[in-house]
């Protein structure tokens, strides 16, 4: 196996100050997944100019892709692709397609657009583990990568049983999911205390590489990085990418983690 390249930020500004290196793109862990909630062309260009080196995967969030002209959507996908950033379509429209009996057509349409992948979730629809397995396998057959989301929205208690959550994660990976995204609501957002035990159990069972955690809040990003280090995969908003990268490099926290982050 080839030794992975290490990104020491050569060519970046103020190189007189050394920072911890970390694995360069394409990475297998330490991924930053950015949620594109409807960035216009100029805003997307600005994001990529500043932070393309630190974005591993883009997510077209909240079903916004359904609201765009085809030419605009093609341009968005092409712009990310030019920076070696694969793009997947978030779960809201995927769930609608499933409810309407159009899942296969939807997956094919994404493939035809040149999309890299699709999120398959049951955040707002009732779906058993076996059904989810079958939808993931169906998307994979079309040629898409799958980010499978585990969790529920709308105040539904879903994180009470570690065995049930682990069984769902295992089924998603067995079906061929590229990664499993752990829904934050009810686990580490909208709760009085982060469900640290479940998160740690999942990492212990499946490893950091297989899982993505949502971390849209500053305190959560600090907790994940302090607990698991720079190689945890995190899903953040577009205006949080540089903040996250600076934390991965140890610039935003003093103490042991700040000295030991990266490789």
Write the topology of this structure:
Elements: E1 6-7, E2 22-23, E3 32-36, H1 41-51, E4 57-60, H2 70-82, E5 87-89, H3 91-99, H4 103-113, E6 117-120, H5 129-142, E7 145-150, H6 162-174, E8 179-182, H7 196-206, E9 211-214, H8 218-228, E10 234-237, H9 241-248, H10 256-260
Parallel strand pairs: 3-4, 3-10, 4-5, 5-6, 6-7, 7-8, 8-9, 9-10
Antiparallel strand pairs: 1-2
Helix pairs in contact: 1-2, 3-4, 4-5, 5-6, 6-7
Descriptors for this entry?
263 residues; eight-stranded parallel beta barrel; two-stranded antiparallel sheet; 14% strand
Q: How much helical structure, as a percent, in the residues?
A: 40-55%
Order of strands, main sheet, comes to 3-4-5-6-7-8-9-10
> Could you describe the largest sheet, including whether it forms a barrel?
8 strands, parallel, barrel
Describe the global form: globular
Secondary structure: number of strands: 10
| Multimeric organization | single chain
**CA distance, first residue to last residue:** 18 Å
Q: Secondary-structure element sequence?
A: EEEHEHEHHEHEHEHEHEHH
Share of residues in strands? 5-15%
> Which value, in Å, is the CA radius of gyration?
18 Å
**Mean of residue pLDDT values:** 89
Could you say which structural class the secondary elements and strand pairing correspond to? alpha/beta
**Poorly predicted runs of 5 or more residues:** 254-263
Determine the number of helices (DSSP H or I, runs of at least 4 residues): 10
């Amino acid at each position: 196996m080839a030794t992975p390249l290490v990104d020491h930020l050569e060519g970046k500004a103020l190189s007189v100050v050394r920072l911890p290196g970390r694995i360069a793109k394409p990475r297998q862990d330490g991924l930053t997944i950015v949620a594109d909630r409807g960035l216009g062309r100029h805003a997307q260009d600005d994001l990529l100019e500043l932070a393309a080196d630190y974005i591993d995967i883009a997510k077209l969030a909240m079903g916004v892709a359904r609201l765009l002209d085809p030419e605009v959507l093609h341009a968005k996908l092409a712009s990310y692709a030019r920076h070696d950033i694969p793009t997947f379509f978030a779960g809201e429209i995927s769930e609608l397609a499933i409810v309407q009996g159009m899942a296969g057509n939807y997956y094919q349409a994404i493939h035809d657009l040149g999309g890299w992948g699709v999120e398959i979730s049951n955040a707002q629809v009732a779906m058993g583990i076996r059904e989810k397995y079958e939808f993931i396998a169906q998307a994979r057959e079309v040629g898409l990568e799958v980010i499978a989301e585990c969790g529920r929205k709308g105040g539904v208690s879903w994180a009470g049983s570690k065995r049930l959550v682990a069984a769902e994660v295992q089924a998603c990976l067995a079906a061929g999911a590229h990664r499993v995204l752990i829904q934050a609501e009810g686990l580490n957002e909208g709760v009085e205390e982060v469900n640290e035990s479940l998160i740690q159990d999942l990492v212990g069972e499946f490893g950091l590489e297989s899982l993505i955690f949502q971390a849209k809040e500053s305190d959560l990003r600090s907790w994940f990085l302090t607990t698991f280090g720079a190689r945890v995969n995190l899903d953040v908003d577009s205006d949080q990418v540089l903040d996250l990268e600076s934390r991965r490099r140890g610039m935003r926290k003093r103490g042991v983690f700040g000295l030991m982050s990266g490789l």
